[in-house]
Design brief:
By secondary structure, this protein is an alpha/beta fold. The protein contains eight helices and 13 strands. It has a single domain, classed as Spore Coat Polysaccharide Biosynthesis Protein SpsA, Chain A, CATH 3.90.550. Strand 4, helix 2 and strand 5 form a beta-alpha-beta unit.
Length: about 240
């Protein structure tokens, strides 16, 4: 059964012109595709049965990784004929998923301790755990949670005025890394156009047990789906400042 899902279908518009000839997850840092770092991280943490969602220039991903054998993992693919939302894509492969699955955005670059994340999830008997990181500004969404990590509020879009009213030490955003129980994913409608993150307020309102795992200060994380951040990460990794 699938233990990990990497979302790698996007068209990478924010990465043009680099993505004219390559899908975003295949852009290289230190001569290695970003997607390969994600696969290596999952493998290092004991997750070897992986599904990758594909769409844009999908043949370049499939030709490189094949069935995953040369990377020490087992890879399956969802080959989409049109670009569906991330929640829709996951719903299409629901029958392949194990009881618990980790879901990972394909443009995340991190050395997160996934074993510790899963332990956190299991100890709290959570239905959903999302990774949060301290973010001072430029929010795409905001997480409010109690001292044990229980999610109290999730705002998908937040204005600069709202950010200014949040104390600095309470400013947390989602990393785009989730642990889900399969039973929760089954509740997603088959025809949804929403992305996975957009379901979090719905699941919270429905009373599901959702927790936030805070990344520590030593953990590296960068969402490299934007040109400036990609170039920053490239310098950090290739200069040896960051070890992944």
């Amino acid at each position: 059964m699938i233990e990990g899902i990497i979302l790698a279908a996007g068209m990478g518009i924010r990465m043009l012109p680099l993505t004219n000839d390559l899908p975003k997850p295949m852009l290289r840092i230190n001569n290695k595709p970003v997607l390969e770092y994600a696969i290596e991280l999952l493998k290092k943490n004991g997750i070897r049965n992986i599904l990758i969602t594909t769409y844009y220039q999908k043949e370049k991903i499939i030709e490189y990784f094949e069935n995953g054998e040369k990377f020490g993992v087992n890879i399956k693919y969802l080959e989409q004929e049109k670009l569906n939302s991330s929640a829709n894509a996951i719903k299409q492969v629901i029958d392949l998923i194990g009881d618990t699955v980790i879901i990972f955005n394909g443009d995340n670059l991190t050395n997160l301790d996934i074993r510790d994340l899963i332990n956190f999830h299991e100890l709290r008997e959570a239905e959903i755990t999302l990774c949060g990181y301290h973010k001072k500004d430029s929010f795409s969404g905001h997480l409010s949670f109690n001292s044990d990590g229980k999610l109290e509020n999730f705002t998908e879009k937040i204005s600069n005025e709202e950010i200014a009213r949040i104390p600095m030490d309470k400013r947390f955003s989602s990393m785009g890394i989730y642990v889900f129980k399969k039973s929760i994913l089954k509740n997603i409608p088959s025809d949804t156009t929403l992305n996975l993150g957009e379901f979090l307020p719905i699941f919270l309102k429905d009373g599901h047990k959702i927790f936030v795992y805070k990344k520590n200060e030593e953990t590296y994380f960068k969402e490299v789906g934007e040109l400036g951040r990609f170039n920053e990460a490239k310098i950090e990794v290739e200069n040896g400042e960051i070890i992944l």
